[in-house]
Amino acid sequence: MASFEKLQVYQRAIDFSYKIYRLTENWPKTETFGLTSQLRRAAVSISLNIAEGSSRSRKDFSHFLTISRGSCYECIPLLAIATKLKYLTNEDYKTCYTEVEALAKMINGLRNSLDL
């Protein structure tokens, strides 16, 4: 097991990606290359940047964590648009929003712990 796989934030990011894939699987086919793809890519990017950054220097890892946190915030307007279009329920929106906020805080905490 790679060291990043032991990080709770990484595991939570994987769970979030899974949730997004499940929520988007029945969205209209017209969104396959639009909103569906953008939201999935943003969600997956959170864990990918944690993984890639962990194999680099502390300074680089910090940079990758910043990108990962940005991917969290990229999800928010995509979720809002999906909710306005009635692809997501308000409950699913709130659940995802809360999870994205929690992930962003965890990423920030990890970044701050790097002692740069």
From TrEMBL:
The record's section on Gene3D superfamilies has: 23S rRNA-intervening sequence (1.20.1440.60)
Q: Which GO terms describe its cellular component?
A: ribosome
Q: What UniProt keywords apply to this chain's record, in alphabetical order? A: Ribonucleoprotein, Ribosomal protein
Q: Which InterPro entries match?
A: 23S_rRNA-intervening_sequence, 23S_rRNA_IVS_sf
Q: Which NCBIfam families does the entry link to?
A: four helix bundle protein (TIGR02436)
The protein in question is named S23 ribosomal protein family protein
Which source organism?
Candidatus Gottesmanbacteria bacterium GW2011_GWB1_43_11
Native organism taxonomy = Bacteria, Candidatus Gottesmaniibacteriota
